[in-house]
Write a structure and sequence with these properties.
By secondary structure, the protein is mainly beta. 12% of the residues lie in helices and 36% in strands. Among the domains are: 49 residues, no CATH class; 160 residues, no CATH class. The protein is built from five helices and 31 strands.
Length: 475
């Protein structure tokens, strides 16, 4: 076996090349004669054992360190090199795929395969294969800021249970985890199997379902202790009731409590019932969790605003009937919610024949819903078997427009299938004689070429790491 290692003009006598699946660049370690001029270092690395040659183009030299040779007192140079994926982390971009709109549709609707194709093109890859990526998964990938394309690819792999590998010719290919051919090579030197799994079943869970419903509300007031009580039960209620009290004046309220009246009366409202045309599920008020402005689970859908509009009967006259009024209308000031209590920026009330009365209000807002009996989220998950994987998929149920539960169910079914597919492969490591061109894929997570030109131990081996037990392997 004649071993050759070519890296520019450097004289190299050993190499340790680990090639792993994923978006992170793999690192190679070379050892050779002292290198003085870095300008002589080329971006192409070649290894050859007389039968097989492998070429690694577009590499990047990270460092050269001179230190004592392992076989004597002389100094040698140790080269640390990254494969071509370093470029993916040197290109910055933003993207917005499959983010839910307010009506449940998606921005830039795309399968994970289509997104992989877009991102690999951004990364500068001219030749790649995304044909094996799932066409049933629509992952949410959203970056407002400029981030490395490599990070986008890495996040996309984690979201969808895919990975980025290399075919035998070195070209890029996207694989589902648990997908990809295993080597069929006779020159086996050793074999180790580390796991032999028994797979029962999987269940994948979505995020808790988001409902956008019409929520009827009643006015409440705040006590000096901060307690929220029914408007007719506040300690500072006027003797003649509220009908003669004009908001902003409250002349019948004791002067010491007028600040509380101005802060809360006809400004604070609590839910009294919930309507949603898309589901027959009950919405007990004890299980209602209205999303607050800026809630992180909702930021990606409407910029942090959790309330859509207000309808009902309230002053002035043109706000009567089923008139949809934006919840951020200047007349309201704004509408916010905290701990299931709605707060308006200005008083909201009715005026009938000069008398003030309670408004009739329905607020269309986003919320989650728990089962009042056990505290579990309604529609928390889809699937069967023991819980194994948490998912990014977001179900929504919108009062008068529709739901994406069927779409979510289809995506979770596909996600579950990939989980099972991945788990059917045992973790093992096989060592082959010589340099072997092995596909790095969703089963073969890493391969490692070890070459040595020294007279005492010259030769080449290829280690193949199969299964998910080798993530994070380093040279």
């Amino acid at each position: 076996m004649t071993i050759k290692i070519t890296y520019g003009d450097a004289k190299i006598w050993s190499a340790d090349l680990l090639i792993s699946a994923g978006a992170q660049p793999s690192r190679f370690i070379l050892e050779g004669d002292i290198q003085g001029d870095l300008d002589d270092v080329a971006p192409i690395l070649r290894i050859d054992d007389g039968d097989t040659e492998r070429i690694f183009a577009d590499t990047r030299l990270l460092s050269i360190e001179n230190r004592p040779c392992r076989w004597g007192d002389e100094l040698s140079s140790y080269y640390v090199i990254e494969d071509k994926r370093w470029k993916w982390w040197d290109i910055f971009a933003s993207c917005d795929y499959n983010r839910l709109k307010c009506d449940g549709d998606r921005y830039n609707d795309a399968t994970c395969g289509e997104i992989f194709g877009d991102l690999l093109t951004l990364a500068g890859e001219a030749i790649f294969d995304v044909g094996s990526a799932s066409d049933a998964i629509y992952p949410v990938l959203h970056y407002d800021e400029q981030v490395p394309v490599g990070r986008m690819l890495q996040d996309l792999c984690e979201l969808t249970k895919h990975t980025i590998g290399f075919k035998e010719d070195g070209s890029v290919k996207v694989f589902q985890l648990g997908q990809g051919k295993l080597p069929n090579i006779s020159a086996i030197k050793s074999f180790r199997q580390y796991t032999n799994r028994t797979i029962n079943d999987f269940k994948v869970i979505s995020k808790p379902t988001l409902f956008e419903s019409l929520i009827s509300v009643n006015p409440v007031g705040m006590e000096s202790t901060g307690e929220i009580v029914d408007l007719d039960s506040v300690s500072y209620k006027p003797a003649a009731g509220w009908s003669g009290e004009w908001p902003g004046q409250f002349s019948g309220v004791a002067s010491a409590s007028q600040w509380l009246a101005n802060k809360s009366v006809y400004r604070l409202f609590e839910p009294s019932s919930v309507e949603n045309d898309q589901t027959a599920a009950a919405f007990p008020l004890d299980g209602l969790e209205i999303l607050e402005n800026g809630d992180c689970a909702y930021n990606s859908m409407r910029g942090g605003v959790c309330i859509d509009y207000v309808i009902g009967e309230f002053w002035p006259e043109y706000h009567r009937g089923d008139v949809e009024t934006s919840a951020t209308d200047h007349w309201f000031g704004d509408v916010s919610v905290k701990e299931n209590i709605f707060q308006f920026g200005r008083p909201v009330f009715k005026v009938d024949d000069g008398a003030v009365s309670e408004p009739v209000l329905k607020i269309k807002a986003w919320h989650r819903q728990r089962d009042d009996a056990n505290g579990d989220f309604i529609f928390e998950s889809l699937g069967n078997g023991p819980v194994r994987e948490a998912s990014w998929v977001q179900p929504v149920v919108i009062h008068d427009e529709g739901t994406n539960l069927t779409d979510v169910g289809n995506q979770l079914t596909e996600y579950r299938r990939i989980c099972i597919q991945e788990s059917n492969i045992d973790t093992s490591m096989v060592v082959y004689d010589g340099i072997q061109s092995v596909e790095v894929n969703g089963n073969v997570r890493s391969i490692r070429h070890k070459l040595n030109l020294t007279a005492s131990s010259g030769g080449a081996d290829t280690e193949v790491y199969i299964g998910d037990g080798w993530d994070g392997l380093q040279v």
